[in-house]
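Posted in: Protein Modeling Q&A

I'm a second-year student putting together a small comparison for a lab meeting, and my supervisor asked me to include a predicted structure for Zinc transport system permease protein. I've never done this before, so apologies if this is the wrong subforum. The sequence is pasted below exactly as I got it from our records. If anyone can share the structure token output, I'd also love a short note on what stands out.
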Amino acid sequence: MIEKLVEYFQYPFVVYAFIVGTLIALSSSLLGVTLVLKRYSFIGDGLSHVAFGAMAIASVLKIANQTAIILPITVVCAVFLLRNGNNAKIKGDAAIAMISVGALAFGYLIINKFSTSANLSGDVCSTLFGSMSILTLTMSEVMVCVVLSIIVVALFLFMYNKIFAVTFDEDFAKATGVKADAYNFIIAVMIAVIIVLSMNLVGSLLISALVIFPALSAMSILKNFRSVTIFSAISSVICAIAGMLISMLAGTPVGSTIVAVDVFVFAVAYFIGKGTGGKA
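Accepted answer (user: helix_wrangler)
Welcome! Here is the predicted structure, written out as tokens:
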């Protein structure tokens, strides 16, 4: 087994996949805690379906740099959901469901009607569930993922105190002079970036798992926001690495394997939390 792994890691694309996967897992877990506490856990699903719809448009138009189309559309929808979801006539959960289902339906309709691919079902399945696409990243795609992931992590660390304030009591944060709307906008942009990057790792339908499970695992055991965030980040990275290793050795889909490991870790954390009473 070890010899097999050593042989795999001699290939640059495998190293690239682990670098990108680790950074995506880290960045998604940091914002996951905030989203869960703000009761926006399913925003990952909604935005991932938006990204799928945007990708379908880019594919049909034969645009080489699909990220240039997918990212702006996803950012706009993220801003709409986070800034207007609770104040509009259509509330947050309903808005997410509406955008999620609508974008997924239109995306598949566009691909089905206009795509010239000889393997339409395979392409759609790969996009939705991740398949092995992370092992086929080009050097330019790797650099984009690395740079954007580092920016997200750096912004989160730099704005940690403000994000903490906006997460727990947005009205109080505004009263103390914090520009909550501006920070919500930045959070929305970071979430959109993570969603677009994560499509290569776990696919459109499984992205929310990277956001939700590490945060819930941490919250099952710990109560302090800083501790939860750190635990969430560490567990997410470990699950991503373990999932990719298992996928390589067992020949299973990368995205589904990573999510399965996340589910296992959550189950363990949940029972540990039950046993300790969540007093950590």
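A couple of things worth pointing out for your meeting: The chain has 13 helices and no strands. The chain has one domain: 2-276.
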